[in-house]
Backbone:
């Protein structure tokens, strides 16, 4: 018997009752001809997007109609990110712009949630500098939204919800998904790694896994509804199950979970992110290699090619171990698409350290890199390190890294010309609405004519041109 740390069912039922009470209030308003609208704005990672889909689901359960513009909203909720200070400043700027909406519509409710306000100094900043914000709640309290809204409506007092004493998993909350063919499914929350540059363990708590039964049921339901691309989420998915061993100390780990999910019948891809190299096992790679639905794509953040820097980052692996994982993966899955994260300009990074990063890029030859210039996050150990890298040096290194990676990405894409690839159509391209775009099993972007496929359909495309960041296809014979 495994013990998962979940919110007790009586507390979930209590929130459902609060949702009904708010819905009654909104229904009375609707009878008077006033439909109540809710607007949810999301900053940050895929986990935040998944959280916002649950927030949106709870808004619907309270009788709100979701809308895409804040101007008509009666309830605005801003789900914030804290991974970089730029994300926090952008969120605060947008929240500041909502002041005039509140002035023109005093009954409007404005709430701020997410990672940013889990930090006490940001919560206090909202409290004292943004008096028109009605309520604030952190990542541990998302499931309590109906109760928070009801308290605000009935008592008309600002609410600053404290973080829960223990971060738990809330099951059974409604979800309003953005897409009807791509879906996020959280398998675990929190992080125990404490990388010296990262704020996540402080704003999302320690690792806690969802039960495999709940995950299998959710994925099975999505496949049954026709979802074709499902991404499993966790700050470190490879740690799944470690916090919930059975009475004999055995764990049902992430590889076991993937193997069970792969047995669900249907035409779909199963993806996951993010994997920590220290926990990326041969067992996981073996499961991927023999699977039917798990996409041949692996996002494995290396962060730096310098063992010295990796130690300062508290990453718990060295480049030798990382390269060993890559070698085994390419042996078992030769056509795998491999992507990574890299931080440029970490405190103390020497020219030799940076050259080691360029060296590992040359050795691995990633299909894509998500690269970032280091910026200090208050509350992390790296923020206290004194040997900062000058901005001009960081920017110059960043440009060198991009130049190298762009040449490799193009080199990796060119051999795909002439091949037929299965692509999931996303609809109009954001960059060029005259054409459709979609993604391959390896998550590469493909552009093609609108008359070839419908949004949400799989289509076989012959690749006729390759660029650094995109492929171009036409209908295959």
Residues:
């Amino acid at each position: 018997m495994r013990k998962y740390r979940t919110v007790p069912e009586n507390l979930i039922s209590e929130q459902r009752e609060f949702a009904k009470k708010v819905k009654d209030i909104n229904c009375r308003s609707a009878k008077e001809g006033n439909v109540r609208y809710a607007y949810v704005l999301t900053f940050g990672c895929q986990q935040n997007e998944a959280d916002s889909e649950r927030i949106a689901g709870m808004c619907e359960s309270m009788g709100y109609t979701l809308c895409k513009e804040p101007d008509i909203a009666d309830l605005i909720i801003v789900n914030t990110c804290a991974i970089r200070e730029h994300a926090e400043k952008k969120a605060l700027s947008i929240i500041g712009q909502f002041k005039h909406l509140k002035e023109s519509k005093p009954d409007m409710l404005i709430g701020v949630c997410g990672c940013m306000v889990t930090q006490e100094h940001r919560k206090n900043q909202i409290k004292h500098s943004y008096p028109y914000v009605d309520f604030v709640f952190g990542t541990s309290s998302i499931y309590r939204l109906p109760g928070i809204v009801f308290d605000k409506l009935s008592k008309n007092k600002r609410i600053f919800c404290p973080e829960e004493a223990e971060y738990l998993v809330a099951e059974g909350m409604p979800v309003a998904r953005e897409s009807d063919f791509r879906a996020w499914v959280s398998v675990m929350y929190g992080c125990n790694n404490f990388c010296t540059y990262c704020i996540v363990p402080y704003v999302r708590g320690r690792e806690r896994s969802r039960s495999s039964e709940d995950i299998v049921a959710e994925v099975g339901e999505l496949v049954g509804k026709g979802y074709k691309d499902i991404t499993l989420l966790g700050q470190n998915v490879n740690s799944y199950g470690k916090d919930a061993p059975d009475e004999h100390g055995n764990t049902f780990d992430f590889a076991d979970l993937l193997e069970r999910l792969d047995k669900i019948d249907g035409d779909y891809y199963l993806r996951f992110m993010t994997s920590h190299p220290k926990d990326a096992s041969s067992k996981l790679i073996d499961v991927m290699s023999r699977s039917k639905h798990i996409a041949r794509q692996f996002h494995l953040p290396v962060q730096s090619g310098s063992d010295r820097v990796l130690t300062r980052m508290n990453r718990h692996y060295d480049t030798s171990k990382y390269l060993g994982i890559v070698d085994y993966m390419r042996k078992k899955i030769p056509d795998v698409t491999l992507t990574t994260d890299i931080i440029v300009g970490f405190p103390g990074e020497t020219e030799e350290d940076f050259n080691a990063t360029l060296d590992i890029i040359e050795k691995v030859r990633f299909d894509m890199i998500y690269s970032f210039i280091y910026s200090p996050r208050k509350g992390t150990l790296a923020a206290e390190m004194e040997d900062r890298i000058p901005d001009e040096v960081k920017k110059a290194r960043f440009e060198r890294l991009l130049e190298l990676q762009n040449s490799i990405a193009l080199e990796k894409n060119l051999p795909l010309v002439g091949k037929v690839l299965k692509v999931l159509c996303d609809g109009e391209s954001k960059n060029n609405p005259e054409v459709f775009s979609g993604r391959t099993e390896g998550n590469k972007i493909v552009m093609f004519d609108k008359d070839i496929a419908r949004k949400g359909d799989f289509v076989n495309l012959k690749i006729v041109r390759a660029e650094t960041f995109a492929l171009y296809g036409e209908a295959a014979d």
